[in-house]
Amino acid sequence: MTKSASMSGSKVPGSLHLFEEGKVAFEFEPSGKSKVLIFVGGLTDGLLTVPYLQGLAKALAPLGFSLIQIQISSSFIGFGTGSLKRDDEEIDSLVDYLKKDNRETLLLMGHSTGSQNTIHYLLNHPAKISGGIMQAAVSDREYGNAVIPQPLLSELNAEAQALVNAGKQDQLLSMRHTEKMFGTPITAYRWCSLLLPGGDDDYFSSDLSDETLDNTFGHIQEPFLVALSEKDTFFPEGAKPLYLLERWKAHTDPKIWSKSSGIIQGASHAVPEEESQKELFEKIASFIHEIGF
Fold first, then answer.
1. Is 164 left (phi over 0), alpha (psi -120 to 50) or beta?
2. Where do the DSSP E strands lie in the chain?
3. What digits encode the pLDDT tens for the residues 24-40?
4. Among the listed residues 274, 248, 277, 272, the one whose alpha carbon sits nearest the alpha carbon of residue 261
5. Which of 7, 8, 70, 83 has the smallest count of CB within 10 Å of its CB?
6. Which CATH number belongs to the domain containing residue 19 in this structure?
């Protein structure tokens, strides 16, 4: 999940790429590098809503990388009628476009629910890109369980699951569901994907079985970095980020788990804090050096 602050009150130089009819991605200055970090935001994010992007673009430039943020159909309030599969198809379309544009090296970075896009892409397109970064990878299911009162959550879950079972997964849910999902109209499928155990979005919950993690983290073939925020309010009370990192690491091929993975000190969810941003950028730079770029 995410609810990020915007970079307001400034002009943001760069280039807008129309990579497919009706689909755009923004390349921050300095642009045109042969190596690219593709960035995808979380729920309710769109172009320029994550506060550290301009700083990240500047930090990447000396490494020979451009930063490109994709705006997917799920951006802003589009996620309620979307899916990781639809996101994946659009990200893959941008990857193909950039390869035709002679961009030689591509990395994919996700913030918040964008981390689900990142792991999903790595699992479904082995060897197509050079690696991934997951920042603020949190469980939407566990967050929902923490903030929605249990009797109400049980009712909402049952209503959504009943529609999915009846083959009406694309039907929009009630206003009660919308109110609990950032005011976003949401289908029965996406509600179940985000908030029910074993949903398509359920990659980062703390109670996932070893077998499940073997089939997700254990099947990734490209190197990746995980950077969690120390003061992430989307972690439920009592969450143990270090435990999560160690567990994910234990199910990952040690050759591809970045030694720079860890906790960003002092960081809240979208890392608006200047010192925490510097630490995030250092982790990303170290990861890029690790994998030989």
1. alpha
2. 14-20, 23-28, 35-40, 65-71, 105-111, 131-135, 224-229, 262-264
3. 999 999 999 999 999 99
4. 248
5. 8
6. 3.40.50.1820
Q: What is the DSSP letter of 235?
A: S
Query: Residue 261 is encoded by which pair of tokens?
Result: 């993975």
Same domain, 51 and 176: no
C-beta atoms surrounding 274 within 10 Å: 11
28 vs 16: CA distance, rounded Å: 9
Angle between helices 150-165 and 140-147 (to 10 degrees): 130
Where residue 125 falls among pLDDT bands split at 50, 70, 90? very high
Mean pLDDT of 111-119: 98
**What are the angstrom distances between the C-alpha of 243 and each of 185, 246, 279, 284?**
34, 5, 20, 21
CA dihedral sign, ordered 88, 91, 95, 101:
positive
Q: Classify residue 9: in a domain, yes or no.
A: no
* Same-domain status, 165 and 209: no
Tokens of 76: 């802003």
Res. 3: pLDDT tops 70: no
**Residue 218 has what DSSP assignment?**
G
Enter the pTM of the model.
0.96
CA-wise closest residue to 43 among 90, 98, 12, 84: 84
Q: How many domains does the chain have?
A: 2
Sheet holding 262-264: strands in order across?
Answer: 14-20, 23-28, 65-71, 35-40, 105-111, 131-135, 224-229, 262-264
